[in-house]
Each structure stands twice: as structure tokens, then as C-alpha cells.
Specification:
3 helices, 6 strands, Nucleotidyltransferase, domain 5, single chain
Length: about 130
Amino acid sequence: MTTARSAEPNVTPMIDVLLVLLIIFMVTNIRVHHTMDAQLPEAGCDVLCESSRQIVLEVLPGPTYRINQSTVASSDLFARLSSIYVARPEKLIQVAGYPGARYEDVVGAMDVARSAGVRVVAIAPPGTYLPDRR
């Protein structure tokens, strides 16, 4: 009389390990998630920089940066923004990204502005600023 052997794998330890890994990935994903606060333009707000109180950071392709229509080199962006915002009580900046400007350049400019002391980043309405027609 021969007995047929059957091998049944024990999957309980494998399920335990997978559940532990799932919990670890969920916890680390929550801790890694970073956000950036942005203020979107209000409806009917066409004029962005009528007074000198508004600071507008324009991100053009290249990347090229302008602060209130004056060109700033990318290496001087942090120093220029720091000097502007060191004594300002209102820490608000408008960011205008042009077509052709890379997403990384716009977000990088926002990050530099935040590290220079800006607390609120507002997005400029589309069509408010037009590129130079030279």
C-alpha cells in the first residue's frame, strides 16, 4: 500500500509578512507627503500689480526669472527675494509661469521664494502678463 503525498504550502507566514510590509509602506507614505499652500486668483481680478506692494515673480523658459519686470539671474534669485522680504510685513508673492517654462522651474522658484521668507504663494491669473515681444 502506497500513500500519496501531497504538499500543502503554509501561506500564513507569507501573509503576515505582506501585511507588515503594507503597513510600513502606508506609514512612510504619509510621512513623506509634502504640500505647498497656494492661493488661486479670484474671479474678476484682472489687474495683478497695480501698486508697488505686489511682488510678482515671473518664470520664463530657460529658466529666466523676473521680479516686477526686472530680470534676475537664477543664482541671485534667493538673495534678491531675501532682501525684498526681510523687512516686509506682508509675505505674499504672485508667481506667473509662462508657456514653455518647465514645471520643475516654476516649482523650484516657489521653493526658493518659500525659503527666502515668503509665507503665501499666489498663482497669477493666465493672460495677466505677456512675454516680451522683441
